[in-house]
Amino acid sequence: MSFTTRPELRGTFGMVASTHWLASGAGMSVLERGGNAFDAAVAAGFVLQVVEPHLNGPGGDVPALLWPAERGEPVVVCGQGPAPAAATIDAYRSLGLDLVPGTGPYAAVVPGAFDAWCLMLRDFGTWELADVLEAAIGYAGGGYPVVPGIRSAVLGLPDGWTSSIELYSPVPEVGELFRNRALAETYGRLTRSGGDSREARIDAARDAFYRGWVAEGIFASDERGLLSGDDLAGWAATLEVPVTLDYHGHTICKTGPWGQGPVLLQQLALLAGFDLAAMGPADFIHTVAECAKLAFADREAWYGDPDFVDVPLDALLSAGYADGRRALVGERASAELRPGAPDGREPVLPPLVSGAGGATIEPTVGLAGDTCHLDVADRHGNLVSATPSGGWLHGAAVVPGLGFCLGTRAQMFWLTEGLPSSLEPGKRPRTTLTPTLVLRDGEPYMAIGTPGGDMQDQWQLGALLGHLHFGRDLQAAIDAPSFHVNHFPSSFHPRALSLNELEIEERAGPDVVAELRRRGHDVLVSEPWSLGRVSAVAREPGGMLKAGANPRGMQGYAVGR
Q1: Which of 1, 256, 288, 419 has its CA 20 to 30 A from that of 237?
Q2: Is residue 23 over pLDDT 60?
Q3: Which residues does 406 contact at the CB level (< 8 Å), separation at least 6?
């Protein structure tokens, strides 16, 4: 048996894995008290908003992949809010901008997280909103231990963000309890929204947030940017059919191309033509990296909100297209950004800005790959994979009186006409948030995901391949040395790219690094435990549940029995 940083958990009752131990504990508490996986996921998601405010919040975004056992098919929850009606390319150009800013009110889109969690709870959960918010309110009002990233974010706040500075003064020390009483009051007041049924009370809270007193608080502040009351009032989270690909007896489910999710499927389609299990470490990493370069080039050229642009998704995921693209993978590393021409259509790339090297991550402080993730499996056969992010403490000032920030996801739009991800009013930004659901022989098997911006569909790919091809259990697959390429424009301001750059953990070993450099990769060697924050839960056909969580950053945890 090989060493792992912690055991792969196994049991039959329930499993929760997330990027923070308090969220995992809160989710498991819900399962223990009779809630289902969706109740537990929502409770854990709200706790993440409290205890990781530098990584997500109510004003941010959350996509989720669900398997509701009673429904018997996978479902996407789209909690990605769109651009304001006033957000035109000309409006930003008139401000003297060539790119959407990475911070501040002009990077805001409609907040998506609160409505998405409420939609999940209403349609698939069983608990009251007040009950799933109990732990979050307790931590916000009673205090939670500060992690290093929070302190770093507070120390980096701009002088003009007085509402944030006042809320987090004095600057909390790592490990001490911090209380966000404004957020506790916001949550508490939302739970008191009236109605004659559970569903009606949840909808009343959604109405209060998007059309009532929460929206009024946002528009009374200076943080609204181009957002209007109509933008919030006219939007709601939605349920969608996932995009899927069959791979070695498994069906991988992702969001549509309004997120980067299909890029994982494109990588798998390319890798399906290689005997990965027979490869040595350097050959394996080279092959995966070169396939990632091709898939992400297509992401840049073709992905965008399908309500606004014609994304040739069927062609991009077809076996014939993958066969043609696979022929481009050679023995040497490619230093070119090479999108394909699905259905004979000519690709168009955004402006390319050379970067200084390093990971294309969310512009957060601390560990690379900041955002949040959670996975839940219950004894009833339900699965949840959700990746909440945005509304970062460092991204925008706190809305006075509400205790949370608005998001900055608009920075993923281009202010260049004619691209699939060009800015348009009401359009969803092509987000990096990308949870994953895996079916095995048509039955629900695994929920997996990670924070990490542009690297999310590379880090979880490594764990998936380790599990599916090399027989590693969930924890061993998560613990294995991680790597990714930075061979595409960053999705985050200032949108730099680092062609041919491959970043790898030192634990891969000097011989592997030397061979990759011999093949032409520009290799950056990172700290031994620095790349990725993957977590996962899974369900075997006989009802055995299992889970693993990431040791990197020393926050993630899985619990279960």
Answers
A1: 419
A2: yes
A3: 59, 105, 108, 111, 218, 223, 224, 225, 227, 391, 395, 396, 399
The pairing of strands 62-67 and 353-354 is unpaired
Tracing tokens 């009186």 back to the chain, one arrives at 401
User: What's the CA gap between 133 and 46, in Å, rounded?
Assistant: 7
Phi, psi of 245 (to 5 degrees): -145, 135
Percent of the chain topping pLDDT 90? 94
Dist. CA 31–CA 14, nearest whole Å: 7
- d(C-alpha 435, C-alpha 400), whole Å: 32
Q: Is the pLDDT of residue 370 over 90?
A: no
**In whole angstroms, what is the distance from residue 189 CA to residue 205 CA?**
9
Helix (H, G, I), strand (E, B) or coil at 552: coil
How many angstroms separate the CA atoms of 132 and 139, rounded? Answer: 13
E strand spans, 137-267: 144-145, 177-178, 238-240, 243-247, 250-254
Identify the sign of the CA torsion 373, 377, 378, 382. Answer: positive
pLDDT exceeds cutoff 80 at 357: no
- The tokens of 47 are what? 């706790």
Give the span between the Cα atoms of 403 and 168, in whole angstroms. Answer: 10
pTM over 0.85: yes
Residue 390: both structure tokens together? 């945005």
CA dist 417 to 315, 420, 421, 488, 557, Å? 24, 9, 9, 19, 44
